[in-house]
Amino acid sequence: MKALVKEKAEPGLWLTDVPEPVVGPGDVLIKVLRTGICGTDLHIRNWDGWAQGAVRAPLVLGHEFAGEVVETGRDVTDIAAGDLVSGEGHLVCGKCRNCLAGRRHLCRSTVGLGVGRDGAFAEYVALPAANVWVHRVPVDLDVAAIFDPFGNAVHTALSFPLVGEDVLVTGAGPIGLMATAVARHAGARHVMVTDVSAERLDLARKLGASLALDVSGATVADGQRELGLREGFDIGLEMSGRPEALRDMLANMTHGGRIAMLGLPAEEFAVDWARIVTSMITIKGIYGREMFETWYAMSVLLEGGLDLTPVITGRYSHDDYEAAFADAASGRGGKVVLDWTR
């Protein structure tokens, strides 16, 4: 089968032939229809310091996907051939304290699909049935392919109650954009989004931002005044991993404000801990999705009318992957999807 592979320990990707995955008794074989390109995939293609420490070549990339079940192992009873599915890309041990307590997203032995084992940038992918999400209601195929990052956005945005709250989203990348849509849909009063990309800020407005602020020419405090906020933001969703973004967020939170932080910093940085203490600010780290409560919430949000299609700004055939990766790396658009049926 064709697959997009990190063949060598150097920059680049290769579209090549690899063996089809073997299906074990508890596994599901899926014909891949669409895949989404993630920042993780960009790191692996570029072969930066993180990728060199996390990935062993050769490796089939990809963890965002939607596909059709074509075969199930003998022990699989609740998934059938023909089902439209997406996959939870964090494979957990099932035996640690958190797994046994139902907190699988906190497993210390998590293996990432397309990072620690062969992934979904291929014509077929095999996954344990426990990691397969069956779409029981109609869903746009491209949206189904980005359920993984959509889950990151939902996990982050719904970490704290949003009804009637004023929300600051720092970083209008694809997940920040989806979090903006979720926050608006979930009842936030104001949602202000910051970035330096005019194109992404335009997308934020389409997805319901009350104010999309270019912080290369204005400050978060300026935006706060424009919205008429007297005491600061109630909820912060930090999606950029940028030190200045978190510092500005902290400086503009109300006392007792709550921050969910998904953005992953490239290195350690200082923050004003005295402000965090004296303003009684809560900071919660977010990684991945809650299995499978977040997935349930995602499906319900879509059933309730949440429209994510504006987030998808690039659609390419899988054999045009070079152009697709260049689009995803440009920092100007939303999600980029690869079609594996053509």
From TrEMBL:
Gene3D superfamilies, per database record: Medium-chain alcohol dehydrogenases, catalytic domain, NAD(P)-binding Rossmann-like Domain
Cofactor(s) named in the record: Zn(2+)
Protein's pathway: Amino-acid degradation; L-threonine degradation via oxydo-reductase pathway; glycine from L-threonine: step 1/2; Metabolic intermediate biosynthesis; 2-deoxystreptamine biosynthesis; 2-deoxystreptamine from D-glucose 6-phosphate: step 3/4
Residues the UniProt record annotates as site (Important for catalytic activity for the proton relay mechanism but does not participate directly in the coordination of zinc atom): 148
UniProt binding sites for NAD(+): 175, 195, 200, 262-264, 286-287
GO cellular component, one term: cytoplasm
Residues given in the record as Zn(2+) 1 binding sites: 38, 63-64
Purpose of the protein: Catalyzes the NAD(+)-dependent oxidation of L-threonine to 2-amino-3-ketobutyrate. Catalyzes the oxidation of 2-deoxy-scyllo-inosamine (DOIA) with NAD(+) or NADP(+), forming 3-amino-2,3-dideoxy-scyllo-inosose (amino-DOI).
Classification of source organism: Bacteria, Bacillati, Actinomycetota, Actinomycetes, Kitasatosporales
NCBIfam families: PRK05396.1
Span of domain Enoyl reductase (ER): 12-338
Cofactor binding annotation: Binds 2 Zn(2+) ions per subunit.
Assigned keywords, A-Z: Cytoplasm, Metal-binding, NAD, Oxidoreductase, Zinc
PANTHER family listed in its UniProt record: L-THREONINE 3-DEHYDROGENASE
Active-site residue numbers: 40 (charge relay system), 43 (charge relay system)
Name the UniProt record assigns to this protein: L-threonine 3-dehydrogenase
Major subcellular site: cytoplasm
Its EC number(s): 1.1.1.103
Binding-site list for Zn(2+) 2: 93, 96, 99, 107
Organism whose genome encodes this protein: Streptomyces griseoviridis
Family indicated by similarity: Belongs to the zinc-containing alcohol dehydrogenase family. DOIA dehydrogenase subfamily.
GO biological process, one term: L-threonine catabolic process
Subcellular location(s) per record: Cytoplasm
SMART domains: PKS_ER
GO molecular function, a single term: zinc ion binding
